[in-house]
């Protein structure tokens, strides 16, 4: 009566997986790797018929624009490059190897197409990073590799800072012609799904085109895939730091004509404004490439500096006339008539009196001198 009820027995004893059963897929993988590469050479193009071209599909994903060097005309970008091709020598029956449908192995084990960036601008560029490839039982190989590329880009700064650029990324085989490797693009444009926005450049698109070019050295065609990166500059930074200060400084130059002649600051104001514009002009010139096309903002600076220089020179002439005193020669009648009659009406300058509606009239109906 004092005994506790016995614990219920399990309906079925727990199953135990032996180490041999757990390691079976691993043994199949080792056996598969040994059988595939027993008589394999990664130096030869993997085709059954050497007269047929090997199809290579290319897909480029733009991850980030690292830098755009306008002065050296070099674009630095971070790309994910995917290459897909069929290796006829690396196929197997997955039922004979424990149902293994795909394996991931170092890319150095298999033959790889020598696809490089044609317009590369980096002397230390060694191609894509060494990553694993995905090998499937039907022989299809997928190689995803990230790469930081520096490509040459023709920069047109004619409308800086409201300019747009078109930078091309051209990929192709370096040694194989179109009869050996048929390079094609997987998509009609670059993949921008994982793109990290750039603070200076806005990406409008990245269309892809396939070109077949015959060079002068060789009679065989060479296909390539060109991605055109369409960029537009974000001009807010340059508007607030270069354009608006220039406009505000240039408005100070006409104020020199309203300063009293005896203040002694009329010429100093014009020279100070001219020096300020010169500093802004140097800042623009440092970031622009030396070319025949002058940027739009550079033309604006030159025009403003020309007007301020003329204004300062005219101020010096006025100061000289003002300080001549009564000992100066009288003004010729033609000069008085030109300045006080015609130029006064043109510049809307009237003699200060009781009424500012128009020039003071003499009794004969003519403007008083």
Automatic annotation (TrEMBL):
Which Gene Ontology cellular-component terms appear in the entry? postsynaptic membrane
Organism of this sequence: Calcarius ornatus (Chestnut-collared longspur)
Every copy of the Neurotransmitter-gated ion-channel transmembrane domain together lies at 242-351
Instruction: Please tell me whether the keyword Cell membrane is annotated for this protein.
Output: yes
Q: Where in the cell is it found?
A: Synaptic cell membrane
Transmembrane domains' residue ranges = 237-261, 267-288, 300-319
- Topology versus the membrane: Multi-pass membrane protein
**Gene3D superfamilies per the UniProt record, alphabetical:** Neurotransmitter-gated ion-channel ligand-binding domain, Neurotransmitter-gated ion-channel transmembrane domain
Which PANTHER family does the entry link to? NEUROTRANSMITTER GATED ION CHANNEL (PTHR18945)
InterPro entries recorded: Neur_chan_lig-bd, Neur_chan_lig-bd_sf, Neur_channel, Neuro-gated_channel_TM_sf, Neuro_actylchol_rec, Neurotrans-gated_channel_TM, Neurotransmitter_ion_chnl_CS, Nicotinic_acetylcholine_rcpt
Q: Name one GO molecular function term.
A: transmembrane signaling receptor activity
- Can you give the residue ranges of the Neurotransmitter-gated ion-channel ligand-binding domain? 30-234
Highest taxon, organism lineage: Eukaryota
- Which family does this protein fall into? Belongs to the ligand-gated ion channel (TC 1.A.9) family.
Keywords of the record, alphabetical order, are: Cell membrane, Disulfide bond, Glycoprotein, Ion channel, Ion transport, Ligand-gated ion channel, Membrane, Receptor, Signal, Synapse, Transmembrane, Transmembrane helix, Transport
Q: What is its main location?
A: membrane
Any one Pfam family here would be Neur_chan_memb
Protein name as it appears in the record: ACH10 protein
């Amino acid at each position: 009566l004092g005994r506790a009820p016995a614990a219920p027995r399990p309906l079925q004893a727990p199953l135990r997986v032996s180490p041999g059963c757990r390691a079976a897929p691993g043994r199949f993988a080792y056996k598969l790797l040994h059988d595939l590469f027993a008589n394999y050479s990664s130096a030869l193009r993997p085709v059954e018929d050497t007269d047929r071209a090997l199809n290579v599909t290319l897909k480029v994903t733009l991850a980030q624009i690292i830098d755009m060097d306008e002065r050296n005309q070099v674009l630095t970008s971070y790309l994910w490059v995917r290459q897909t091709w069929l290796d006829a020598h690396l196929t197997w029956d997955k039922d004979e190897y424990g149902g293994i449908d795909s394996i991931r192995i170092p890319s150095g084990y298999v033959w790889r197409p020598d696809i490089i960036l044609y317009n590369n601008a980096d002397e230390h560029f060694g191609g894509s990073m060494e990553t694993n490839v995905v090998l499937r039982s039907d022989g299809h190989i997928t190689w995803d590799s990230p790469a930081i590329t520096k490509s040459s880009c023709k920069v047109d700064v004619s409308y800086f800072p409201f300019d747009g650029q078109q930078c091309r990324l051209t990929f192709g085989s370096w040694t194989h012609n179109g009869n050996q490797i048929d390079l094609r693009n997987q998509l009609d444009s670059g993949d921008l799904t994982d793109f990290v926005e750039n603070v200076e450049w806005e990406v409008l698109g990245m269309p892809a085109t396939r070109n077949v070019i015959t060079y002068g050295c060789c009679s065989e065609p060479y296909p390539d895939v060109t991605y055109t990166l369409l960029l537009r500059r974000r001009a807010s930074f340059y508007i607030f730091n270069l354009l608006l200060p220039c406009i505000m400084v240039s408005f100070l130059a006409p104020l020199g004509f309203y300063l009293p002649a005896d203040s002694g600051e009329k010429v100093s104001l014009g020279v100070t404004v001219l020096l300020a514009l010169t500093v802004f002009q140097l800042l623009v010139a440092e970031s622009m490439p030396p070319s025949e096309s002058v940027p739009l903002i550079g033309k604006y600076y030159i025009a403003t500096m020309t007007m301020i220089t003329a204004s300062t020179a005219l101020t010096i002439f006025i100061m000289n006339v003002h300080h001549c005193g009564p000992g100066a020669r009288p003004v010729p009648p033609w000069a008085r008539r030109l300045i006080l009659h015609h130029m006064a009406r043109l510049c809307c300058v009237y003699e200060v009196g009781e009424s500012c509606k128009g020039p003071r009239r003499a009794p004969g109906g003519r403007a008083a001198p």
